[in-house]
Each structure stands twice: as C-alpha cells, then as structure tokens.
Amino acid sequence: MSWRSERIWIELITGSRKTSNFCWAFILFLGSLGFLLVGTSSYLGRNLISLFPSQQIIFFPQGIVMSFYGIAGLFISSYLWCTILWNVGSGYDRFDRKEGIVCIFRWGFPGKNRRIFLRLLMKDIQSIRIAVKEDIYARRILVLYMEIRGQGAIPLTRTDENLTPREIEQKLLN
C-alpha cells in the first residue's frame, strides 16, 4: 500500500503480521503441544491424548525424543508469536522531493534498536539497482536496492513480494 502526492511518496511496508505467519505459528504450536503431550503421557503411563495409547510409546527413548521435539517446537512457536505481536519488519519508506530527503523506518525486536530510522539525502543516493535472486524452489525473486554513498545497499522491496520486472519499473518511474 502506498500514498502519493506531488512532493511526497509514502510506501507502507507490511511486517510479520501476514496470514502465512499466523498459520505457521498456529500449526507449529498445535503440533509441538501434541508432541509434548505424547511424551508426557508416555512418562506418566496414562493417556493424555486418546488418539495415541501411552502403552505403545516407551518413555526411553521415544518419549524423551517426543518431549524434546515438543519443547523445541513450543520455543520456536513462541518466537513466531512474538514477532507477530511486535510486528517486526513493518514500517514505511518516505520520499520527499521538495526537501530532498528519504526516510526509512522499520520496527525491530524490543531493545535498544527497536526503532530503526534512517534519514538520507536524495543527493547521497548513488543508484537504484535490481538484483535477481533464486530461492530453494528455483524461482526468480527480484529485489530492489538503493545504493547510498558511504552506507552500502538498502533493500526497498520485500523478498516475498514477487514483483515482475515491469511492476518494479512502474514503481520506480512513478
């Protein structure tokens, strides 16, 4: 989503509050909870989950491994839920033609660097480049970078946007 006027262009950046992240966090939570309950029921010798009789799963080594996977999954799930709650990666890019200033703002993890705010002069922008990357599924991903004098490259598009070269060109020209 973006907002545009004669002199200011604001591009809103979606962070970690995406439907896919909600789905993965929920699935991971339920799966790891199931693993932990199966491991606990094998330790106690009682059926905490009626789908798996605890007599078929011996505590050592299967129950211990199931409990370990359940605890590890709960930690990863809690990490995902925290990134969703804090909306890590969200923010905006603001381009002000009249003032000649580019502002890039992102929310990070809690702590000293929770708010990431870059204020750059447009005259310090050396170039805009498009990089082609391939993911593990051999799909081409185009990423738009802004080269800043003395600071290196700053990515302007998310890697999951999957914009075509024509869409990136239109984005740059407008």
Quick description:
This protein is an alpha+beta fold and 174 residues long. The chain has helices at 19-44, 59-86, 165-173, and strands at residues 2-4, 8-13, 91-96, 101-107, 115-121, 125-134, 140-148, 152-155. Strands 1-2-3-4-5 form a 5-stranded antiparallel beta sheet, with no helix packed on it.
Description:
It is a single chain. With 174 residues, the chain is of the alpha+beta class. The protein has helices at residues 19-44, 59-86, 165-173; strands spanning 2-4, 8-13, 91-96, 101-107, 115-121, 125-134, 140-148, 152-155. The longest helix has 28 residues, at 59-86. The chain is elongated and about 75 Å long.
Query: Care to count the β-strands?
Result: 8
Stretches where pLDDT falls below 50 for ≥5 residues?
none
The overall pLDDT average reads 87
Helix share bin: 25-40%
Q: Distance between termini?
A: 14 Å
* Largest sheet descriptor: 5 strands, antiparallel
Number of helices: 3
Strand order of the largest sheet: 1-2-3-4-5
The secondary-structure class comes to alpha+beta
Rounded to an integer, what's the Rg over CA atoms?
23 Å
Which outline best applies? elongated
Order of helices and strands: EEHHEEEEEEH
Strand content: 25-35%
Strand and helix layout:
Blueprint: E1 2-4, E2 8-13, H1 19-44, H2 59-86, E3 91-96, E4 101-107, E5 115-121, E6 125-134, E7 140-148, E8 152-155, H3 165-173
Antiparallel strand pairs: 1-2, 2-3, 3-4, 4-5, 6-7, 7-8
Helix pairs in contact: 1-2
